[in-house]
Design goal:
The chain is of the alpha/beta class and about 425 residues long. About 35% of the residues lie in helices and about 25% in strands. It has a 5-stranded parallel β-sheet, with helices on both faces. The chain has a 5-stranded mixed beta barrel with strand order 14-15-16-18-17. Helix 7 packs parallel to helix 8.
């Protein structure tokens, strides 16, 4: 059977689709790069915003047009929240609920192997090579669900309560990925900081990964800005842990944060960032921000914008507020008009672009290790290679070699495209 897999949305979705890809390959299926070549197409959908829902719906229709007789298996948050709507789309033959997503492969293949618990389906014999499915980094799902009740978030409804994989299981998977040739593992979860459902659980997991595996680089995906302490940040004394943190803020105004039911405010977020920057030299810090949340006045936005500028992020992911069915915020009064949401988004994206430039400029002339991901073109002088530093800054080098899935130390040069050029190899 020829299988095509695609995902939309977060890093957790990417981790899930890569696990499915390995499982399908291990079951003897042929993984193909185009939906038009497939007998079965699996799409992992997203519903974090109305745009994400629209994009998921469009991709299902496009896949059906590419191969009308292919089976389309849909999973993820969009199909979880709107199963009837998804089931009516052309070509959809099966919907797999989020609670069964980790067993999707044996379910759709009618596998007779009994898997009693979710997240036990990942085989540790990996024939799936780095670079397949577009990534040389291994996205590893360690946690799912969330027990917070942020008023804007539909993910808690779609994903359910928080739960975590055992440390030994995660360590074994990452060790197998290192043996298979991966050079970086990205730990992902809906609420990664709650790993283990107790204080210090994530710190113990990271320490175990660093101690018991040979994975050259370890990176964390999005991490909520609470329940973190000095002992946690001391983990970065190990240079294998990438000096990049993504700490979602959502708003820089305390009044807005209270309506969001976020477990942070300006003072606690500022203290956390100071703690992190003290422990992690040259920390690359990025965040998420929602603009136009219900009740966000011009004054509240001005407060938020000023605090965001103070934090000096290297990158912002800016989202215009999108009411999600079933959330508390969708029932709030004080909606912000579309023009204001657009203008506020543009102002914060300008801050993001400026922060990105400032951070990149601090790296020019310095040495950094780059994990090369892919070749994105060719020129008269050779191949255009691209990869990422530990700081999550993109790097380009054009030359006679293909560097995919290698780590090299380079001296960073000036800006190129959306990243930095290589001045020379060390």
């Amino acid at each position: 059977m020829k299988v095509y897999l695609e995902t939309l949305g977060c890093r957790l979705n990417e981790a899930e689709i890569e696990a499915m890809t390995r499982q399908f390959a291990g079951s003897g299926a042929q993984i193909v790069d185009q939906a038009g070549e497939a007998d079965m197409c699996v799409i992992n959908t997203c519903a974090v915003t109305s745009d994400a829902t629209r994009a998921s719906r469009q991709r299902i229709r496009q896949i059906n047009r590419a191969k009308p007789d292919a089976q389309i298996v849909v999973t993820g948050c969009y199909s979880e929240l709107a199963a009837a709507e998804v089931g009516a789309l052309p070509g959809v033959t099966r919907i797999v609920a989020n609670q069964h997503k980790d067993r999707l492969v044996p379910i759709v293949l009618a596998d007779s192997i009994a898997m009693a618990e979710p997240m036990d389906a990942e085989p540790l014999t990996l024939d799936y090579v780095p670079g397949a499915h577009g990534h040389t980094r291994a996205f590893v799902k360690v946690q799912d669900g969330c027990d917070n009740r942020c008023t804007f978030c539909v993910t808690t409804i779609a994903r359910g309560a928080g739960r975590s994989r055992p440390i030994a299981e995660v360590v074994a998977e990452i060790a197998a990925m290192a043996r298979a040739g991966y050079h970086e593992a990205v730990l992902t979860g809906v609420q990664l900081g709650s790993y283990g459902e107790r204080a210090g659980g994530l710190r113990e997991l990271i320490q175990a990964v660093l101690t018991d595996t040979d994975m050259p680089r370890v990176r964390l995906s999005s991490l909520e800005p609470w329940d973190l302490d000095e002992a946690f940040f001391r983990l970065w004394e190990n240079p294998r842990l990438c000096p990049h943190l993504h700490l979602p803020l959502q708003s820089g105004c305390d009044a807005t944060l209270r309506r969001m039911l976020r477990r942070t405010d300006q003072a606690s977020y500022r203290a956390l960032v100071e703690m992190a920057r003290t422990a992690i030299p040259d920390l690359a810090l990025s965040t998420d921000v929602i603009v136009g949340f219900p009740g966000e006045t011009d004054d509240e936005f001005a407060v938020s914008e000023a605090f965001i500028a103070e934090m000096d992020f290297m990158k912002l992911h800016v989202f215009p507020y999108s009411p999600r069915p079933g959330t508390a915020a969708s029932r709030m009064r004080g909606g912000v008009d579309a023009a204001s949401r657009k203008l506020r988004g543009e102002r914060l994206r300008a801050l993001s672009e400026a922060g990105d430039r400032r951070f990149r400029e601090t790296l020019i002339g310095r040495t950094a290790e780059v994990l090369w991901e892919s070749v994105v073109g060719a020129s008269e002088v050779g191949w255009v290679n691209t990869g990422l530093t530990g700081y999550y800054v993109r790097v380009y080098w054009t030359g006679p070699r293909v560097l995919t899935n290698t780590i090299t130390a380079v001296t960073l040069g000036g800006s190129e495209r959306d990243g930095l050029a290589v001045k020379g190899f060390v």
